[in-house]
Amino acid sequence: MLAEATEALPHAIIVADMHAPGARIVAANEAFAQLTGHAREDVIGRNCRFMQGPQTEQDAVRRVVESVRCARQGQVELTNYKADGTAFRNLLSLQPVHDSNGVYRYSIGVLSDAATLDEGGREEVERLRRLLPTQHYFGSSVVPPRPLVVETLMRESEAMHQKLVSNDAREGRGVRFGGWANIPSDVAEWHASMTAGADGCPFGVSISDPKQPGNPLVYINAAFTKMTGYRGDEALGRNCRFLQGPDSETGAVEVIKESVRQASRCCVRITNYRKSGGVFQNLLVIQPVLDSTGELCACVGLQLELDSKLACEAFHNSF
Ligand SMILES: Cc1cc2nc3c(=O)[nH]c(=O)nc-3n(C[C@H](O)[C@H](O)[C@H](O)COP(=O)(O)O)c2cc1C
Protein backbone atom coordinates (compact mmCIF):
# COMPACT_ATOMS: atom_id res chain seq x y z
CA MET A 1 0.00 0.00 0.00
CA LEU A 2 2.66 2.50 1.08
CA ALA A 3 4.88 1.43 -1.81
CA GLU A 4 2.07 1.92 -4.33
CA ALA A 5 1.25 5.36 -2.94
CA THR A 6 4.86 6.56 -3.29
CA GLU A 7 5.16 5.33 -6.87
CA ALA A 8 3.03 8.15 -8.24
CA LEU A 9 5.14 10.87 -6.59
CA PRO A 10 7.85 12.79 -8.47
CA HIS A 11 10.12 12.87 -5.37
CA ALA A 12 12.61 10.14 -4.52
CA ILE A 13 11.16 8.08 -1.68
CA ILE A 14 12.33 5.08 0.30
CA VAL A 15 10.52 3.20 3.05
CA ALA A 16 12.47 1.39 5.80
CA ASP A 17 10.87 -1.33 7.93
CA MET A 18 11.56 -0.57 11.59
CA HIS A 19 10.76 -4.14 12.57
CA ALA A 20 13.34 -5.67 10.24
CA PRO A 21 16.88 -6.02 11.63
CA GLY A 22 19.00 -3.09 10.42
CA ALA A 23 15.92 -1.06 9.36
CA ARG A 24 15.99 -2.53 5.86
CA ILE A 25 14.50 -0.76 2.84
CA VAL A 26 11.21 -2.37 1.83
CA ALA A 27 10.21 0.07 -0.92
CA ALA A 28 11.91 2.57 -3.22
CA ASN A 29 10.11 4.43 -5.99
CA GLU A 30 11.14 5.12 -9.59
CA ALA A 31 12.18 8.70 -8.73
CA PHE A 32 14.68 7.24 -6.21
CA ALA A 33 16.23 5.08 -8.94
CA GLN A 34 16.48 8.12 -11.20
CA LEU A 35 18.05 10.36 -8.54
CA THR A 36 20.63 7.89 -7.25
CA GLY A 37 21.17 5.58 -10.24
CA HIS A 38 20.61 2.57 -7.94
CA ALA A 39 18.25 -0.05 -9.38
CA ARG A 40 15.37 -0.63 -7.02
CA GLU A 41 15.92 -4.38 -6.82
CA ASP A 42 19.50 -3.70 -5.66
CA VAL A 43 18.48 -1.55 -2.69
CA ILE A 44 15.53 -3.54 -1.31
CA GLY A 45 16.62 -5.38 1.84
CA ARG A 46 19.60 -3.08 2.50
CA ASN A 47 20.18 -0.41 5.12
CA CYS A 48 20.43 3.11 3.62
CA ARG A 49 24.04 3.54 4.70
CA PHE A 50 25.20 2.23 1.30
CA MET A 51 24.69 5.82 0.05
CA GLN A 52 27.33 7.14 2.46
CA GLY A 53 31.00 7.58 1.61
CA PRO A 54 34.23 9.36 2.58
CA GLN A 55 32.73 12.91 2.46
CA THR A 56 29.56 12.02 4.39
CA GLU A 57 29.31 14.19 7.50
CA GLN A 58 29.26 12.00 10.62
CA ASP A 59 27.28 14.48 12.74
CA ALA A 60 24.57 14.53 10.04
CA VAL A 61 24.54 10.71 10.06
CA ARG A 62 24.09 10.80 13.85
CA ARG A 63 21.12 13.15 13.46
CA VAL A 64 19.54 10.82 10.88
CA VAL A 65 20.06 7.77 13.13
CA GLU A 66 18.61 9.69 16.08
CA SER A 67 15.47 10.70 14.14
CA VAL A 68 14.94 7.19 12.80
CA ARG A 69 15.57 5.50 16.15
CA CYS A 70 13.35 7.87 18.13
CA ALA A 71 10.54 8.03 15.55
CA ARG A 72 11.02 11.77 15.03
CA GLN A 73 10.21 13.83 11.98
CA GLY A 74 13.26 15.63 10.74
CA GLN A 75 15.20 17.16 7.89
CA VAL A 76 18.95 16.65 7.49
CA GLU A 77 21.28 17.68 4.65
CA LEU A 78 24.24 15.39 4.04
CA THR A 79 26.66 14.25 1.36
CA ASN A 80 25.59 11.00 -0.27
CA TYR A 81 26.83 9.07 -3.29
CA LYS A 82 25.11 7.91 -6.44
CA ALA A 83 25.65 4.48 -7.97
CA ASP A 84 28.32 5.89 -10.33
CA GLY A 85 30.28 7.28 -7.35
CA THR A 86 29.43 10.97 -7.79
CA ALA A 87 28.64 12.84 -4.59
CA PHE A 88 25.48 14.93 -4.15
CA ARG A 89 23.99 17.00 -1.34
CA ASN A 90 20.96 15.06 -0.17
CA LEU A 91 18.20 16.99 1.58
CA LEU A 92 16.67 14.07 3.48
CA SER A 93 13.24 14.47 5.10
CA LEU A 94 12.19 11.73 7.50
CA GLN A 95 8.70 10.76 8.52
CA PRO A 96 7.87 8.05 11.10
CA VAL A 97 4.78 5.89 10.48
CA HIS A 98 2.92 4.09 13.27
CA ASP A 99 0.31 1.38 12.96
CA SER A 100 -3.17 1.53 14.44
CA ASN A 101 -1.87 0.10 17.73
CA GLY A 102 0.61 2.95 18.05
CA VAL A 103 3.56 0.72 17.18
CA TYR A 104 6.37 2.38 15.21
CA ARG A 105 6.50 0.44 11.90
CA TYR A 106 8.12 2.43 9.11
CA SER A 107 10.39 5.36 8.46
CA ILE A 108 9.78 7.15 5.16
CA GLY A 109 12.64 9.14 3.64
CA VAL A 110 12.14 11.79 0.95
CA LEU A 111 15.44 12.46 -0.86
CA SER A 112 16.22 15.55 -2.92
CA ASP A 113 19.32 16.86 -4.62
CA ALA A 114 19.75 20.08 -2.60
CA ALA A 115 21.75 21.71 -5.42
CA THR A 116 18.67 21.65 -7.64
CA LEU A 117 16.29 23.10 -5.04
CA ASP A 118 15.53 26.78 -4.68
CA GLU A 119 13.58 28.13 -1.66
CA GLY A 120 10.25 27.17 -3.29
CA GLY A 121 11.57 23.66 -3.97
CA ARG A 122 12.54 23.19 -0.32
CA GLU A 123 9.12 24.34 0.81
CA GLU A 124 7.52 21.87 -1.59
CA VAL A 125 9.56 19.00 -0.11
CA GLU A 126 8.49 20.02 3.39
CA ARG A 127 4.85 20.23 2.24
CA LEU A 128 5.14 16.75 0.77
CA ARG A 129 6.61 15.37 3.99
CA ARG A 130 3.66 16.78 5.93
CA LEU A 131 1.28 15.07 3.51
CA LEU A 132 2.89 11.66 4.00
CA PRO A 133 0.94 9.20 6.15
CA THR A 134 1.88 9.07 9.83
CA GLN A 135 -0.41 6.10 10.42
CA HIS A 136 -0.67 2.82 8.57
CA TYR A 137 -3.46 0.36 9.21
CA PHE A 138 -3.07 -3.35 8.94
CA GLY A 139 -5.96 -5.66 8.14
CA SER A 140 -5.25 -7.63 11.29
CA SER A 141 -5.61 -4.62 13.59
CA VAL A 142 -7.48 -5.88 16.66
CA VAL A 143 -8.62 -2.53 18.00
CA PRO A 144 -10.33 0.15 15.91
CA PRO A 145 -7.85 2.84 14.86
CA ARG A 146 -7.78 6.16 16.68
CA PRO A 147 -4.92 7.79 14.84
CA LEU A 148 -4.99 11.35 16.14
CA VAL A 149 -5.36 10.39 19.78
CA VAL A 150 -2.57 7.83 19.54
CA GLU A 151 -0.31 10.24 17.71
CA THR A 152 -1.01 13.10 20.10
CA LEU A 153 -0.37 10.97 23.14
CA MET A 154 2.83 9.64 21.69
CA ARG A 155 3.97 13.23 21.31
CA GLU A 156 2.81 13.96 24.87
CA SER A 157 4.65 10.95 26.23
CA GLU A 158 7.78 11.94 24.35
CA ALA A 159 7.55 15.45 25.85
CA MET A 160 7.04 13.94 29.29
CA HIS A 161 10.07 11.69 28.89
CA GLN A 162 12.14 14.65 27.77
CA LYS A 163 10.97 16.69 30.77
CA LEU A 164 11.88 13.95 33.22
CA VAL A 165 15.25 13.55 31.59
CA SER A 166 15.91 17.29 31.50
CA ASN A 167 15.35 17.42 35.28
CA ASP A 168 17.94 14.75 35.61
CA ALA A 169 20.34 16.38 33.19
CA ARG A 170 20.01 19.76 34.94
CA GLU A 171 21.19 18.13 38.13
CA GLY A 172 24.29 16.94 36.36
CA ARG A 173 23.27 13.33 35.92
CA GLY A 174 23.04 11.88 32.48
CA VAL A 175 20.68 9.20 31.33
CA ARG A 176 20.53 7.42 28.03
CA PHE A 177 16.87 7.87 27.45
CA GLY A 178 15.41 8.02 23.97
CA GLY A 179 17.60 10.49 22.18
CA TRP A 180 19.84 11.26 25.16
CA ALA A 181 23.39 10.21 24.72
CA ASN A 182 24.63 10.29 28.33
CA ILE A 183 24.37 7.34 30.64
CA PRO A 184 24.01 7.26 34.43
CA SER A 185 27.24 6.73 36.28
CA ASP A 186 25.39 6.00 39.50
CA VAL A 187 22.23 3.99 39.00
CA ALA A 188 20.98 4.54 42.57
CA GLU A 189 21.30 8.32 42.22
CA TRP A 190 19.61 8.23 38.83
CA HIS A 191 16.77 6.20 40.31
CA ALA A 192 16.28 8.69 43.16
CA SER A 193 16.16 11.72 40.86
CA MET A 194 13.97 9.93 38.31
CA THR A 195 11.38 8.87 40.88
CA ALA A 196 11.39 12.34 42.49
CA GLY A 197 10.50 13.76 39.06
CA ALA A 198 7.88 11.09 38.38
CA ASP A 199 6.02 11.23 41.70
CA GLY A 200 3.75 14.11 40.72
CA CYS A 201 3.58 13.17 37.04
CA PRO A 202 0.02 13.05 35.63
CA PHE A 203 0.82 9.91 33.60
CA GLY A 204 1.51 6.49 35.05
CA VAL A 205 5.25 5.94 35.53
CA SER A 206 6.71 2.56 36.44
CA ILE A 207 10.29 1.32 36.69
CA SER A 208 11.39 -2.30 36.58
CA ASP A 209 14.71 -3.91 37.43
CA PRO A 210 15.75 -6.19 34.54
CA LYS A 211 18.73 -7.43 36.58
CA GLN A 212 16.36 -9.24 38.92
CA PRO A 213 14.73 -12.50 37.79
CA GLY A 214 11.37 -11.82 36.11
CA ASN A 215 12.06 -8.08 35.60
CA PRO A 216 9.90 -6.98 38.58
CA LEU A 217 8.57 -3.47 39.18
CA VAL A 218 10.62 -1.49 41.69
CA TYR A 219 8.71 1.79 41.46
CA ILE A 220 5.24 3.00 40.52
CA ASN A 221 3.90 6.52 40.88
CA ALA A 222 0.55 7.68 42.25
CA ALA A 223 -0.95 8.06 38.75
CA PHE A 224 -0.19 4.36 38.07
CA THR A 225 -2.11 3.41 41.22
CA LYS A 226 -5.00 5.71 40.31
CA MET A 227 -5.23 4.25 36.81
CA THR A 228 -4.85 0.55 37.66
CA GLY A 229 -6.14 0.35 41.23
CA TYR A 230 -2.92 -1.42 42.36
CA ARG A 231 -1.04 0.09 45.32
CA GLY A 232 2.72 -0.18 45.71
CA ASP A 233 2.50 -3.14 48.11
CA GLU A 234 0.40 -5.01 45.52
CA ALA A 235 2.44 -4.17 42.41
CA LEU A 236 6.11 -3.89 43.44
CA GLY A 237 8.13 -7.08 43.12
CA ARG A 238 5.85 -8.37 40.33
CA ASN A 239 6.28 -8.31 36.56
CA CYS A 240 3.85 -5.77 35.10
CA ARG A 241 2.12 -8.43 33.01
CA PHE A 242 -0.41 -8.71 35.87
CA LEU A 243 -2.23 -5.87 34.04
CA GLN A 244 -2.87 -8.17 31.08
CA GLY A 245 -5.85 -10.47 30.55
CA PRO A 246 -7.79 -12.40 27.91
CA ASP A 247 -8.27 -9.40 25.58
CA SER A 248 -4.68 -8.13 25.74
CA GLU A 249 -3.20 -8.10 22.23
CA THR A 250 -0.50 -10.76 21.84
CA GLY A 251 1.19 -8.71 19.08
CA ALA A 252 1.68 -5.82 21.50
CA VAL A 253 3.09 -8.17 24.18
CA GLU A 254 5.59 -9.53 21.64
CA VAL A 255 6.71 -5.97 20.76
CA ILE A 256 7.28 -5.17 24.47
CA LYS A 257 9.20 -8.42 24.99
CA GLU A 258 11.44 -7.67 22.03
CA SER A 259 12.00 -4.10 23.22
CA VAL A 260 13.18 -5.29 26.65
CA ARG A 261 15.32 -8.03 25.08
CA GLN A 262 17.00 -5.65 22.64
CA ALA A 263 17.08 -2.65 25.01
CA SER A 264 15.27 -0.45 22.50
CA ARG A 265 12.31 1.86 23.05
CA CYS A 266 8.80 0.82 22.06
CA CYS A 267 5.34 2.29 22.12
CA VAL A 268 2.26 0.06 21.98
CA ARG A 269 -1.43 0.30 22.62
CA ILE A 270 -2.60 -2.61 24.75
CA THR A 271 -5.82 -3.65 26.45
CA ASN A 272 -5.16 -3.83 30.20
CA TYR A 273 -7.20 -4.72 33.27
CA ARG A 274 -7.63 -2.79 36.51
CA LYS A 275 -7.60 -4.48 39.91
CA SER A 276 -11.41 -4.18 39.83
CA GLY A 277 -11.45 -6.23 36.59
CA GLY A 278 -12.42 -3.22 34.43
CA VAL A 279 -10.78 -2.96 31.02
CA PHE A 280 -8.87 0.10 29.76
CA GLN A 281 -6.79 1.02 26.73
CA ASN A 282 -3.21 1.66 27.77
CA LEU A 283 -0.81 3.58 25.54
CA LEU A 284 2.45 2.24 26.88
CA VAL A 285 5.93 3.55 26.17
CA ILE A 286 8.82 1.42 27.43
CA GLN A 287 12.25 2.95 27.59
CA PRO A 288 15.21 0.79 28.55
CA VAL A 289 17.96 2.65 30.45
CA LEU A 290 21.62 1.66 30.16
CA ASP A 291 24.22 2.15 32.88
CA SER A 292 27.70 3.57 32.35
CA THR A 293 29.00 0.17 31.21
CA GLY A 294 26.28 0.03 28.56
CA GLU A 295 24.36 -2.65 30.45
CA LEU A 296 20.58 -2.57 30.79
CA CYS A 297 19.92 -1.34 34.34
CA ALA A 298 16.27 -0.27 34.32
CA CYS A 299 13.15 -0.17 32.18
CA VAL A 300 10.91 2.85 32.49
CA GLY A 301 7.26 2.42 31.54
CA LEU A 302 4.99 5.36 30.85
CA GLN A 303 1.29 4.52 30.95
CA LEU A 304 -1.43 6.69 29.45
CA GLU A 305 -5.07 5.70 29.61
CA LEU A 306 -6.49 6.48 26.20
CA ASP A 307 -10.02 7.37 27.29
CA SER A 308 -8.98 9.43 30.29
CA LYS A 309 -9.75 13.13 30.73
CA LEU A 310 -6.03 13.78 30.33
CA ALA A 311 -5.96 11.98 26.99
CA CYS A 312 -9.02 13.89 25.77
CA GLU A 313 -7.40 17.19 26.78
CA ALA A 314 -4.22 16.23 24.97
CA PHE A 315 -6.33 15.38 21.94
CA HIS A 316 -8.19 18.70 21.93
CA ASN A 317 -5.03 20.69 22.57
CA SER A 318 -3.53 19.24 19.42
CA PHE A 319 -5.69 21.49 17.23
C1 LIG B 1 8.68 -0.85 33.07
C2 LIG B 1 7.66 -1.75 32.46
C3 LIG B 1 6.34 -1.37 32.47
C4 LIG B 1 5.36 -2.18 31.89
N1 LIG B 1 4.07 -1.77 31.91
C5 LIG B 1 3.13 -2.55 31.35
C6 LIG B 1 1.77 -2.13 31.33
O1 LIG B 1 1.41 -1.05 31.79
N2 LIG B 1 0.86 -2.95 30.76
C7 LIG B 1 1.22 -4.16 30.19
O2 LIG B 1 0.35 -4.86 29.68
N3 LIG B 1 2.49 -4.57 30.18
C8 LIG B 1 3.45 -3.81 30.74
N4 LIG B 1 4.76 -4.22 30.73
C9 LIG B 1 5.13 -5.47 30.00
C10 LIG B 1 5.20 -6.73 30.84
O3 LIG B 1 5.79 -6.49 32.08
C11 LIG B 1 6.05 -7.78 30.08
O4 LIG B 1 7.32 -7.25 29.81
C12 LIG B 1 5.40 -8.19 28.77
O5 LIG B 1 4.19 -8.84 29.09
C13 LIG B 1 6.28 -9.15 27.93
O6 LIG B 1 6.81 -10.18 28.68
P1 LIG B 1 6.10 -11.65 28.89
O7 LIG B 1 5.87 -12.22 27.54
O8 LIG B 1 7.12 -12.39 29.67
O9 LIG B 1 4.81 -11.43 29.64
C14 LIG B 1 5.73 -3.42 31.30
C15 LIG B 1 7.08 -3.79 31.29
C16 LIG B 1 8.03 -2.98 31.85
C17 LIG B 1 9.45 -3.42 31.80
Give descriptors for this structure.
319 residues; alpha+beta; Beta-Lactamase; 5-stranded antiparallel β-sheet; 11 helices; 11 strands; 35% helix; elongated; disordered C terminus; binds flavin mononucleotide; FMN; chromophore; LOV domain-containing protein
Question: Averaged pLDDT, please?
Answer: 76
Name given to the CATH homologous superfamily of the largest domain: PAS domain
| N-to-C order of helices and strands | HEEHHHEEEHEHHEEHHHEEEH
Strand content: 25-35%
Organism: Emiliania huxleyi (strain CCMP1516)
InterPro entries: PAC, PAS, PAS-assoc_C, PAS-like_dom_sf
Domain PAC: 72-126
GO cellular component, one term: nucleus
List the helices and strands and how they pair.
Layout: H1 2-7, E1 12-17, E2 25-28, H2 30-36, H3 40-43, H4 58-69, E3 74-81, E4 87-99, E5 104-113, H5 119-131, E6 135-136, H6 147-170, H7 187-198, E7 204-208, E8 217-220, H8 222-228, H9 232-235, H10 250-262, E9 266-273, E10 279-290, E11 296-305, H11 309-317
Parallel strand pairs: 4-6
Antiparallel strand pairs: 1-2, 1-5, 3-4, 4-5, 7-8, 7-11, 9-10, 10-11
Residues 206-208, 215, 239-241, 243-244, 248, 253, 256-257, 260, 270, 272, 282, 284, 286, 299-301, 303 line the site of flavin mononucleotide.
Domain PAC: 72-126
Domain PAS: 1-47, 217-263
GO cellular component, one term: nucleus
